[in-house]
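cron nightly-structures :: item 1 of 1
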Amino acid sequence: MFDLIHKTDVEYRAWNTWSVMYRNNQPATLPQKARGWTSWYYYYTNIDEKTILRNLQNFSNQPDAIFQIDDGFQKSVGEWTQPNKKFPHGMKYIADSIHATGKKAGLWLAPFICEKNSLIFRKHPEWIVKDLNGKPLKAGYNPGWSGWYYPLDIYHPEVRKYLAATFDTILNHWGFDLIKADFLFAAGIMPRPTMNKTRGEVMADAMEWLRELTQGKLLLGCGVPLAAAFKRVDYCRIGNDIHTGWEFKILKSLRASERPSTWSSLTNTITRNSLGNRMFMNDPDVYILRAKKQSLRDDEKVLNILINHLFGQLLFTSDDLSEYDTETRRIYEHFLGLNFYRTTLKPLAKDVYSVQTNLNKKPMRFIMNLSNRKFIFKTETQQASIPRRSVFLITPEGSLQHITLQQLTSLN
């Protein structure tokens, strides 16, 4: 069923050996680390042409970045080449406007699903995967759409023609440079016994085909079983959605493991960091610095932006940059020039980590407490109580320094 490798080595070299051997020694051709903006975590589906172009103007001082439009541009989930009336000039106009500022244009879609009120569901029921009773199989429920959504049969010839035409329109006619493909798990939600294919094999087929559809352009995978995405996407979300607060308490109480959660998102970013620069470039989800429409404490914002930059390779925010005050703008611009190298971590307790890294060839060590309790840490010269959800720097002299939001610009 699978091969095992046993390797004793320095951690980063052991990971390198594994990644090179994976899938018959075919190394992934990975893009550069990228920074950018996405519309989702400030506007969600409430986007329109005016809002997108205004944020583009605010963001135009950052060249060579990715400016990505998320859910909310389409007529319905499944009709990706039909923008809704909120985009009167169409999506080619948007892509051209992004390119005029020197940035790459990105667009979100969920290629393997459709919602109930879509034209596909009404006109082409034969395109939908059926359950054991012959009824359309439900892949999930999204209250932000029309409720239930359904998986498309990736082996159906007409579905393949439809999606090939969709990607051709978005990438070649509209001119987008990156596709954020979401809800990909739906393709492998059911095995195909008549084709002698397991769910995993179906998922692998779907990802291979998706890579073919986007050949020559950037592909960001999202909502996908990670192994199916190994070396098949350029960037990949490696955790759940971040939250505008630290935790989505109601969903946590219901034990919803895929809930929006800043704690869970950052934990996935830390513990899955070894996939980055090997199987794909890690997308840790966005960081939030803004004051409006969020409830993160300052220490939680420090954890968010620092962990994303330490362990991620696709560094997005959704903030409206025009709302930043002078201090927040300084923090944002400071991190545009930071690059951390050879980052390693050691768990010290549940949700507490020692992180060692190099910044501009300068070694640094942080103690990161993501837990809801204080943590007592000792150095050779000092013992300190590290408050819940905070970051401390161990100085070269061995003392502990609390990294506040205001002190982030002192990292260099």
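cron nightly-structures :: done
The domain at 29-341 is CATH 3.20.20.70 (TIM Barrel).
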